[in-house]
Each structure stands twice: as C-alpha cells, then as structure tokens.
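Kindly review these tokens for lecture notes.

. . .
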Amino acid sequence: MRADLLARLRESTARKKGLLGPLPCRHLGAATHETTLCDACGGTKTRLKLFACAVFGRCLPYNRADGVASCVGCVKYEAPDLPPAPAPS
C-alpha cells in the first residue's frame, strides 16, 4: 500500500511541476481507431489517435491538430473524479 501512495505522490508532484499533462477529461472516451496528422511534429507525418468525446464527438487528449477538439486548453474540460487516497496504516 505504501508503494501506491508513493506513486500517487510522485505523479502529483510531477503534474504540479508541469512534467505530466493534465488528467484526462471526464468527457474523454475510448480510441476511435481514427487518426489525424500531428500539426506540431515538424512535418514528420506523425499520426495521432483520435478519441471519443461526449462534448465534441472526437478529440485529442494531449495534442492539437487543425479541425479536431483538444483537451489541452478546452473550456469544457472537467477533471475526472479520483478515488480517495488509501488511509494510512
């Protein structure tokens, strides 16, 4: 149980320092098996997986691409409910 608590603390600290992205939005669904070209990947033709979104239909959780909603900076973003931390033993 202590290892789980340490992992949660490390993740929380990393998020506060900007080393991890935001938590996935509560509207985010499963991958749709569709892809789109990455706008920020320097012309490498990298493809990004699209995900279902309860608000916009489909989206990108951590990236941006023309014509696709993104959780990054989204005004409809809502953090998911997290399970409570385990009680110390």
